[in-house]
Amino acid sequence: MQTIKNQIRQLKAEKNAVILAHYYTPDAVQEIADYVGDSFYLAKIARLSTADIIVFCGVSFMGESAKILNPGKKVLMPDLTADCPMAHMVKPGLIEEMRRRYEDLAVVCYINSTAELKCQSDVCVTSSNAVNIIKALPNHNIFFIPDRHLGSYVAAQVPEKNVILNDGCCPIHAKITAVQVRTEKERHPDALVLSHPECESDVLALSDYIGSTADIIRYAGASDCCEFIVCTEEGVLFELQSGHPGRHFYFPDPHPCCPDMKLNTLERIWDVLKNEDQVVMISDDVRRQALFPLERMLQTADSVSPATHTSSTEGRL
Ligand code: 13P
Ligand code: SF4
């Protein structure tokens, strides 16, 4: 009787498929994936992939971005209902209203957004490249969608720009409170606080380091400290522990957990590889329009700060 992991390996080889997984997916999924990373890294891998099938273990905006960047590939998701609530949090008509109100406006779209929102945007960003990309834009007025927390964090780094915020947020990161962080600090006074910029500003104010999931993992590995309070989704613990054994990682209580990311399971990966039925579909029209801000992000990010992401776990299988 073959284990489910062996069955996945076999199907993957037969079908020339590659498995991409975000750091928030369950441990077993990260363990079996060919590439594990943050949103930016995974978007770049999706664009370069030569596999016939991409199995994207994440949420819908990630699968959509993979399909937009690599339309010739079949992009499958273990569960097509895995969605990021924040990706929808822009009121209809608001982008047009902002464009009427401000001359010289750039609509900057966090990659955690629907393909339809990307179609109306000038450039995409992720938490690992937002500051550098906005600095490089010629525009003074920036409408940052959908995350007000990442938006206000970025605004503080680019005081020369007028960053207009939108009222959206990640419900998982927004639940982390400064009280929870202080409680962990009392329990572990020597620990450094590492936070994702989707957290509230009072949590960020208590933080020693702020960065994307991959940046947090890199920082923890390079630091002289060996204790960390990690303010992001608990799935990063797998990479933190496997990459940095002997270091200690604590999370706010209760641990932040994204239920949509946890819909990615080994059973569903096996099922979708076998049946090829959870296919990411995007109309040609939407794909063409949404490609522009995504490609602009990838090109600008490379020109302002050459690629440094090396979080591939290729070969784990
Ligand atoms: P990263 O780009 O840091 O991986 O973040 C993705 C995400 O969904 C954060 O909530
Ligand atoms: Fe979306 Fe938040 Fe889940 Fe990330 S953690 S996918 S931003 S709901």
3D architecture notes:
- By secondary structure, the chain is of the alpha/beta class.
- 42% of the residues lie in helices and 15% in strands.
- The protein is built from 14 helices and twelve strands.
- The protein has a four-stranded parallel sheet, with helices on both faces.
- β7, α8 and β8 (162-165) form a beta-alpha-beta unit.
- α3 (39-48) runs parallel beside α4.
- Residues 306-317 have low confidence and may be disordered.
- Bound molecules: 1,3-dihydroxyacetonephosphate and iron/sulfur cluster.
Q: What's the SSE blueprint?
A:
Blueprint: H1 4-15, E1 17-22, H2 27-32, E2 35-37, H3 39-48, E3 53-57, H4 60-69, E4 74-76, H5 94-101, E5 105-110, H6 115-119, E6 123-125, H7 130-136, E7 141-145, H8 148-157, E8 162-165, H9 178-187, E9 192-195, H10 201-205, E10 209-210, H11 213-222, E11 227-231, H12 236-243, E12 248-250, H13 266-275, H14 284-304
Parallel strand pairs: 1-2, 1-3, 3-4, 5-6, 5-7, 7-8, 9-10, 9-11, 11-12
The site of iron/sulfur cluster has 15 residues, from loops.
**Unreliable segments (pLDDT under 50, ≥5 consecutive)?**
306-317
Strands ordered across the widest β-sheet: 2-1-3-4
**Alpha carbon gap, first and last residue:** 19 Å
- What is the average of the pLDDT values? 94
Number of helices: 14
Radius of gyration: 19 Å
- Structure class: alpha/beta
Strand content: 15-25%
What's the overall geometry?
A: globular
Please estimate the helix content: 40-55%
| Largest beta-sheet details | 4 strands, parallel
Bound molecules: 1,3-dihydroxyacetonephosphate, iron/sulfur cluster
Secondary structure tally: strands:
12
- SSE string, helix = H, strand = E? HEHEHEHEHEHEHEHEHEHEHEHEHH
